[in-house]
Design brief:
By secondary structure, this protein is an all-alpha fold. It is built from two helices and no strands.
Length: 61
């Protein structure tokens, strides 16, 4: 049968996040922030062809 799982403390979760993802970059200071602007037009995705959803579902995609 399954054994009960022990819950981690916040400190243990923080350690595991550090092990998995490493050191976080320093936060961006408010004076270093800039407004984001779109430089490229959005990519257009045409409507799928009739029946494409069913074909994709059968194909696993």
């Amino acid at each position: 049968m399954s054994e009960p799982t022990a819950s981690f403390t916040d400190e243990q979760h923080a350690f595991l996040r550090h092990v998995r993802f490493g050191e976080l970059p320093p936060p961006v200071r408010p004076e270093d922030r800039v407004a984001s602007t779109e430089t490229e037009p959005p990519r257009f995705s045409p409507d799928p062809t009739p029946g494409q959803y069913e074909q994709d579902s059968r194909a696993g995609g």
